[in-house]
Amino acid sequence: MKRSKLLMLIGTLLVTALLLAACPAAVPAEAPAADSAAEEPAMADEVVEIEYWQYNFAARVDAMNQLIAQFEEANPNIKVVHNADIPYAEFRDKIAASVPAGVGPDVATLFYGWQSVWIDSGYLVPLPEDAFPPAMVAEKFSPMVQASFVEGTLYTLPTAVRALALFYNKDLMTDAGLDPESPPSTLDELADQAAACTQRDDDGALVVQGFVADPAAQDHHWFREVLVRQFGGVPYTDDYTEVLYNDEAGMQAWNYLLAFHTDLATGDRDLFDGSTNAFVGGHVCFHVDGSFRLGTIAKNNPEMNFGVAELPSHNGIKSTFGSYWTHGLTKKAAADQARFDAAVKFLQFITSADAGALWVDIVGELPAQLEAGSNPELLADEKLGAFAAGLEYSHATFFADESQQRQAIIDSFDMVILTDEDPATALQIAADTDQEVLDDFWSSR
Amino acid sequence: MATSAEIGTEGTLQIAEHFKSAHGGSRRRFGWTLLIAYLLLAIGGVCMVTPFFWMILTSVKPAPELVDFSFFPENPTLQNYLNVLNTSSFERWYLNSIIVAIISTTSVVFFDTLVGYTLNKFDFPGKNIIFIGMLGTLMIPTEMLIIPWFTMSVNWNWHIGYAQYWGIAFPGVITAAGIFLMRQFFDGVPNELLDAARMDGMNEFGIWWRIAAPLVKPAIAALAIFNFIGNWNAYLWPLILANSREFYTLPVGLSFFRGESTTHWEKIMTAASLASIPLLIVFLIFQRQIIRGIALTGLKG
Amino acid sequence: MRFTLRQRQIIWAYIFMSVALVFFVIIRWYPTILAFNVSFRDWNVFEGSGPWVGLENYQEIWKDAGKPRSSVTAAFSNTVRYVLFGVPSQLVLALAIALLLAQIRRLSAVFRVAYFAPYVTSAVAVAFVWNWLYQPETGLINQGLDLVGLPQQPFTKSPAQALPSITAVAVWQNLGFAVIIFLAGIQQIPGHYYEAARIDGANAWQLFWRITLPLLNPIIVYLTVLGTISYLRLFALVQNMSPQGTGGPLKSTTTVVLEVYREGFSSYKMGYAGALTVLLFFLILLITIIQLRFFSRRVEY
Question: The whole model's pTM is what?
Answer without folding.
Answer: 0.88
